[in-house]
Amino acid sequence: MRMLLMAQMDTEKASGAVASGSLPEIMQATMDRLKPEAAYFVALQGKRTALMFFDLEQTSDIPSIAEPLFDRLGAQLTLVPAMDFDDVGSGLGRLG
User: Fold this and answer.
1) Tens of pLDDT, residues 47-94
2) Helix 23-34 vs helix 11-20: angle between axes, to the nearest 10 degrees?
3) If pLDDT is split at 50, 70 and 90, which confidence band does 5 have?
4) What's the rounded mean pLDDT across residues 2-16?
5) Element (H, E) at 84
6) Burial class, 2, CB count within 10 angstroms (exposed 0-12 / middle 13-18 / buried 19+)
7) Domains with residue ranges and CATH for the chain
8) CA gap 78, 31 in Å, rounded
9) pTM given for the model
10) Nearest CA to 69 among 30, 16, 22?
11) Model pLDDT, residue 70
């Protein structure tokens, strides 16, 4: 299932990761794990935020995705099912 992962990083922990040079490694490891179809990095609500669209094969994969971001960046995570335009059209086609 296509998912949106929004990871809002704790400013203090993320700043420490920037200072130590580990932030790119953490993000690269996450990208390697998820193989996102798209990834964006933004400032949202005053926090460093990663937005990644990826395919979640099994819900049991969530802990292995989330724990490094919780532990190393103090991230607040949001996982949301996401559709592309074809998915919306297919879903609307089943309405009635």
Assistant:
1) 999 999 999 999 999 999 999 999 999 999 999 999 999 999 999 999
2) 100
3) very high
4) 97
5) none
6) middle
7) 2-93 (3.30.70.120)
8) 16
9) 0.90
10) 30
11) 97
Confidence of residue 41 (pLDDT cuts 50, 70, 90): very high
Rounded to whole angstroms, the Cα distance separating 30 from 5 reads 11
- Report the side by side order of strands in the sheet with 38-44: 38-44, 47-55, 2-8, 76-81
96 pLDDT exceeds 90? no
CB atoms within 10 A of CB 73: 25
CA angle 3, 60, 88 (to 5 degrees): 25
94: tokens are 């089943």
Cα distance between residue 82 and residue 85, in whole Å: 10
Within 10 Å of residue 83's Cβ, how many Cβ atoms?
12
